[in-house]
Amino acid sequence: MTVLRILAALLVSAGIAFAQEIPAGTALPVLLSSKLEAAKIKPGQQIVGRLAQAVPLPSGKRIPEGSQVRGQVIEVRPPASGSGSQLILKFDRVHTKKGDFPVTTALRAIASVPEVESAEQPQWVGGRGFSYPANWTTVQIGGPEAVYRGGGHVMAGNQIVGEPVWHGAIGRFRPSVCPAENDREQALWVFATTACGAYGFTDLHIANPGWNPPIGQIVLAAKGDVQVFGRSGLLLVTLTPGTH
């Protein structure tokens, strides 16, 4: 029993240490696992997505690609006559093989399924050898920024703003409506360094990204029914270290 307690204590200690390494301003690019619909979803319902790209940390470690990002529905205001609808939610856990770690997040950007799929496909293909995904040139959401794979960079016009990596891109957030808490390289996946807001939706906007009170509560609103399909993309950003 003593050995088991020691092992459990070591695991808890390692988990706390890992959580403390996720500083404010860390981008979490998430592929949503299931549909969110204000007309059907209930308060308390769990929401799950997965990291679409490994997330670099200041320590040199990474949160692995495929790690789950978990949250829950806080409140639902279903569509009513003339008043639209709102979905209030939060993402507050990162789950890895080391365990569950608390975070507070805001929503920097959200992209529809077609937007994500378009950003993952080549916009143009060169000669021999360029038919391979590792050599594709893709365009980020919220740019325009082009990702030149196979030895190139992430470019905004003639400016280098990032670098391609496996299943995504890394770069530093550039000035936009959304704030940036640090100048570190971030996991961007399919999003541009200036991405901020909702992309590819005809009737959806971010009423509260989560960095306005109540902190960490994300409000999605629509004139009709809030609908976000599974495999939509989210660019979350942590607001505090994961030990609060």
Keywords:
244 residues, mainly beta, ten-stranded mixed beta sheet, six-stranded antiparallel beta sheet, 2 helices, 41% strand, globular
Quick summary:
The protein is mainly beta and 244 residues long.
Give, in order, the helices and strands.
HEEEEEEEEEHEEEEEEEEEEE
Decide which structural class fits the backbone: mainly beta
**Which consecutive residue ranges, at least 5 long each, have pLDDT under 50?**
6-19
Mean pLDDT: 87
The dominant shape is globular
Distance between the termini: 30 Å
- Count of distinct structural domains: 1
Number of helices: 2
Approximate helicity band: 10-25%
Largest sheet: 10 strands, mixed
**Number of β-strand runs:** 20
Instruction: Please compute the radius of gyration using only Cα atoms.
Output: 19 Å
Strand coverage percent: 35-45%
Task: Report what the structure shows.
The protein contains two helices and 20 strands. The chain has one domain. It is mainly β. A hairpin with a 5-residue loop joins strand 11 and strand 12.
Describe the SSE topology.
Blueprint: H1 2-20, E1 27-32, E2 36-37, E3 46-51, E4 55-56, E5 62-63, E6 68-80, E7 84-96, E8 99-102, E9 104-111, H2 113-119, E10 137-139, E11 146-148, E12 154-156, E13 159-165, E14 168-171, E15 186-187, E16 197-199, E17 205-208, E18 218-222, E19 227-228, E20 233-240
Parallel strand pairs: 9-16
Antiparallel strand pairs: 1-3, 1-20, 2-19, 3-6, 4-5, 6-7, 7-8, 7-18, 9-20, 10-11, 11-12, 12-13, 13-14, 14-15, 17-18
